[in-house]
Each structure stands twice: as structure tokens, then as C-alpha cells.
């Protein structure tokens, strides 16, 4: 092991024995990590693979080329949407009855999560259920060149779990060499004017190559059946906030989230028909371009098998094009015990797509 690798290993090892973070307003403020040395992503990937050497290999997923005929002069913007499964919820609340507790050990599951991020190298990373921001993702991803923002849920269910690592919440990371932060908003969602336990982060970024601005948002709506109207109200509140942040759809928009809603739900229809003119990127993987994938989460709880499409990447369809999207895992890859598993760290699949700006600067969005 060379010097560089030893340094990396100690960087990774430092996060292995993380203890519970203090539950104070520091959650809202990123510590200054600028003094930390940069990490070579390839070396970190190797370190992760070394930790995971007893596990089965990663699943192979391919990008599907979706380019109609839109040659763009600038490199695409790669966006990853992922509910990574809060450690406290996975071990203490979710009841994944077919997943051995051993598969959920943070020391290894963390490396599976990092491996997935490093494999696809997103320019923008939108995460839900993050309960290891300050001890893991913020320090490591900042050394990989990302700028991160975390907004915890006000009453995170993680806090009910013994030995929790603090609240879970949404996190948004972008590569600092590609984008400049123009504006950032942490939004506590309301439902019928009442403040709720769900949050969103919305940031306006400027692309350094093209100097074009766009807004990216991440959210995680209320879970469970019986809460459909509540989710719908939260979605309306988020859309209203985004209307204002994008100056009435003048600024192109990408919204990533675990909406906890199937495409048949009202909140989905609100997004699909909003005046923000959004399309859902993963529909483009279907033969007719009109159908969402059959699942984005698949798990077995005491209540039985739960296979649902709940996660989406929405985008301003007149301003942006999806040039490619990462295909989902097949039923065979997911296996009979479903997710999470020794091969895959979350009950939700990551969604990854590449965006390009359409060639009409100042045109209709
Ligand atoms: N002290 C207080 O005053 C308050 C406390 N709370 C606490 O927060 C909790 C609820 O928070 P809220 O944000 O509304 O939570 P949600 O109902 O949105 O669910 C929280 C998490 O549970 C997961 N989940 C979904 N379905 C199930 C299931 N069937 N079994 C186990 N887990 C599931 C979800 O994952 P996914 O999205 O992947 O499906 C989600 O991350 C309460 O139980 C309470 O502990 C909440 C409000 C006030
Ligand atoms: Mg969950």
C-alpha cells in the first residue's frame, strides 16, 4: 500500500467508527473541510472494494442512450437521485425481514453507497434519508470536489432508534469545478398551511462552461398509505416554492425526490401538469416514452412484498433534454430476497441521468 493509499485508508477509517453526532444546530452548518486533502476517486473506489472483498460483486447497470438528435457543445450534466436508506431506519424501523442485519453493517454498507456514487460520478447528487452527513458524506465528498448542503427533518424518526447517528434528511451535493452556487433555499414543506416533518433543498447553480443557470431541488415526501392528500399538499407547496425560485419557470429546473407516491397519485399529477412544464426523466426508458419504470424500490416487510415506483427526476422539458439514463436493476439481479441486500445498500434504486441544455437560449422553457 503506497503513501497515498494509506492516507486514504485512514480517511475512510476515520468515518468507520463514527459515534452519534450531537443533536444541535451544527446540523445546519457544514464544517470547514477545505483544509482537507483532495482524494483521488479511483483510490477511494479501491479502498471501498477492499472493505467489500467478501461481498458479491456489484450489479452491472448500463446507460441507455436517449439522444434524439441534439448535439450539444457542452459536457452533459449528470444527476443522481437516491434514497440511500437511513442507517437508523434500516437497522431499527424498516423491518426488512429478508435482509440479514449483517448486510446492513454501516462499515460495509457505507462503502457500497460510496461505490455506487463513485461508479457513476454524478455532477449533482440528490440524496434522501442521510443520517451520516457530517461524519461520512460531507467530509469524503468535499475531498472529492463536491460542495454539500444538508437539511435534516425536524422530527426525524431516526431519533427514536437507540444508538442513532442523529436525524436523517435531504442532502444536495454538486461538483465545485463545474458549477457556481447562485442561490440556496432550505424549505420546510407545509401541507394546507401547516408545517410538516418533510423538507426540500433548492439551489440555483451556474454552469461554469456554458454560463447557463438552472435550479436543482431535492425532497422526500411523507411516506405510507393513507397520506396521499398530505403528500399532494406537500407537492403543491414545493411547486409553489419552485415557481418563485425559478422566477415563474424562467430558470430551467431539475427536481429529484423520493415522492413516496406511485404515478397514479395526485401529487404525481400535480407535477406532471404544473405550469413549470416538467417531464419525468425515467419515462424516457419506456418503449413509448410515456410509462414510468415498474419499480424504483423493492423490499419485503412483515406485511409482505413492497414493489413500487416512488422516485423521480423531473426536468423542464423545453429547456433541458435527457441524453442518457441508467437502466434499473432487473428482477433477477435484485434476487428473491429483494433489497437491501449484500449486493445493494438501499431499498431504493439510484436513478442517474445526463442532461443537456436545449439550443434555444432565451426561448420558451
Ligand atoms: N416528537 C414529535 O413531536 C414528532 C415525532 N415524529 C417522529 O417521526 C415519525 C414519523 O415521521 P415522518 O417524517 O412523518 O415519517 P414517514 O411516515 O415519512 O416515514 C419515515 C420513514 O419511514 C420509512 N417507512 C415507510 N413505510 C414504512 C413502514 N411500513 N415501516 C417502516 N418504515 C417505513 C420511510 O421510508 P421510505 O420513504 O423509503 O418509504 C421514511 O423514511 C414518528 O414515528 C415519530 O417518531 C414525527 C412528528 C412529530
Ligand atoms: Mg426508507
UniProtKB/TrEMBL annotation:
- What Pfam families does this protein map onto? Exo_endo_phos
Q: Which domain of life is it from?
A: Eukaryota
Q: What UniProt keywords apply to this chain's record, in alphabetical order? A: Hydrolase
Give the Endonuclease/exonuclease/phosphatase domain ranges: 80-348
Asked if the record carries the keyword Hydrolase, the reply is: yes
Q: Kindly give the InterPro entries that the UniProt entry links to this protein.
A: CCR4/nocturin_mRNA_transcr (IPR050410), Deadenylase_nocturnin (IPR034965), Endo/exonu/phosph_ase_sf (IPR036691), Endo/exonuclease/phosphatase (IPR005135)
What PANTHER family does this protein map onto?
CARBON CATABOLITE REPRESSOR PROTEIN 4 (PTHR12121), NOCTURNIN (PTHR12121:SF45)
**Family that this chain belongs to:** Belongs to the CCR4/nocturin family.
Q: What is this protein called?
A: Nocturnin
